[in-house]
Amino acid sequence: MTYTLWIVITGCLVGLTCGITGSLLILRKMSMIADAISHTVLLGIVGAFFVTQSLNGVPMLIGAAIVGLLTAFFVETLHRSGVQSDAAIGVVFTSLFALGVVLIAFIGDQVHLDVQHALMGEIAFVPWNTLQIGGVSLGPVAVWMLGGVLFVNLLLIAIFYKEIKLSTFDPQYALLIGVPVVFIHYLLMIMVSLSTVASFDSVGAILVVAMLIVPGSTAYLLTDKFFTMLWMSGAIGILSALIGYGSAVYFNVSIAGSMASSTGILFILAFLFSPRHGLVFKRLRTT
Fold first, then answer.
1. pTM (predicted TM-score)
2. Do 187 and 179 touch, CB atoms closer than 8 A?
3. What stretches pass through the bilayer (predicted)?
4. Domains plus CATH for the chain?
5. Exposure pattern of 93-120 as b/e (b: 16+ CB <10 Å)?
6. Which residues of 238-250 are buried (b: 16+ CB within 10 A; e: fewer)?
7. DSSP letter at 140?
């Protein structure tokens, strides 16, 4: 495949993976936890490097999953102790992210990881970091990681579809009929963590946050059906990646930044022109 096509595939996989997972956060009113986890996984990545001396593959995913779970656990613990939810997220997010930034200073000369890289990523470099088996290049590592995480997320959603749906819309009823609500909550946190770290190296924390929150929010304005919102969020993520890449090439600007901006443009269009919830159609119905 060509250099350009690998970049487009990577962007689309980020949009699809994060869009589907993020839509569940939107429905659960947990969108800001995505912002927290997308930054705190930096600590998991750095921690995995200290243990394995490598930033590749499974150790990085495990480190991110552990820190993602810790983030959710600390936020929940603080909230149950009387701290407001948004304040709890702010405290945990800034503390763990800052610790990760400090620890980067100890490995900065050994790997291509710094604060700028963590925030913005560089999707243009993705095609150069390829998976080599037996001297044969099988494509970018990022594509394999994103594809693997997407498969795992879809498999988990398929297996626990009923439990996820019930605990999302009526957690009290779900608890009464024996649905493991706490388990589903932390399962979702693992999915968010894996999606984040798989996207992290390519596009950085900023685009990950955009793809986790905005496509799901856009789909929320366009449909009231759970399954439709899931696939529509992924489709909007893909569309944002395609529009963003085209705009970046045309205007010669940041690819990740352009993709993130595209999510915002699509949200504004849905906010204005959604048949049921759009501002324009609401005004027309009231006149």
1. 0.89
2. no
3. 6-26, 33-51, 57-75, 87-107, 141-161, 173-197, 203-222, 229-248, 254-273
4. 3-286 (1.10.3470.10)
5. beebbebbbebbeeeeeeeebeeebbeb
6. bbbbbbbbebbee
7. E
